[in-house]
Amino acid sequence: MHTFWKTIDWILDKLKIIGAICLVGMTFLTCADVVGRFFRHPIFGSVEIVGFMATLAVAMALPYTQQIKGHIGVEILVRIFSEKKQTIIDLCTSFLSLGLFLLTTWQMAIYAYEMHESGEVSMNLELPEYYIIYIAAFCFVIFSLIILRDIIQNIIKLRHS
Q: Which residues of the chain are modeled with pLDDT < 70?
C-alpha cells in the first residue's frame, strides 16, 4: 500500500509542475497577445488556449492544495472543540467531499466521452476539447484519492485516541 501512495505522490508532483507551467504559459501568452494587439497583430486563438490552460492549472492544483490542507475552511467554531471532535468533523466533511468529487469525476468522464463521440471542437482553433475534460477528470481522480488518504489517516487517528 505504501508503494501505491508513493505513486500517487509522484503523480501529484508532476501535476503540480504541469499546472505551474500552464500558469506561466497563460501569463506569457496573454502578454504576447496584448503586445500583438498593440501592433495590430493579435495571436489567433489565444483566448481559447488561455482558457484551456486555466482549466488545467486549476484542475492540477486541486490535489496538491488538498494535500497541504490549503483549501479555505471555516475553523473559528471548530477550534474550540476537542481534537477528537475536530477529527470527527474533518472525517464527516471528507466523506462528503469524497462523494461529491467521485460523482463529479464520473460525470466529467461521461461528458468527455460524449464530446469525443460527437466530435465537438473549440470554436476558433478547432481543438478537441474532450482531451482537456479527460485530463481534468484524471486530476479529480487523484484529488479523490488524496481525500481518501485523509479519511484513512483520520480513522487511524481516531483509533489511537
A: none
C-alpha cell at 138: 484524471
**Residues 18 and 56 sit within 8 Å (Cβ to Cβ):** yes
| Among 146, 148, 114, 118, residue whose Cα is nearest residue 133 | 114
Question: Distance between CA 4 and CA 6 in Å, rounded?
Answer: 5
Task: Show contacts of 100-107: CB within 8 Å, 24+ apart.
Answer: 101/140, 101/143, 101/144, 101/147, 102/144, 104/140, 105/137, 105/140, 105/141, 105/144
Print the domain residue range for 116. 2-160
pTM, 2 dp: 0.91
What is each CA distance from 27 to 85, 90, 115, in whole angstroms?
Answer: 44, 36, 28
Domain count, the chain: 1
Helix H segments across 39-129?
Answer: 46-67, 83-118
**Which residues on adjacent β-strands are paired with residue 128?**
121
By the 10 Å C-beta count (0-12 exposed, 13-18 middle, 19+ buried), 13 is classed as exposed
Q: Which three cell numbers stand for residue 15?
A: 501535476
The pLDDT of residue 107 is 98
The span from the CA of 19 to the CA of 37, in Å, is 27
pLDDT for position 44: 95
* pLDDT the model gives residue 14: 97
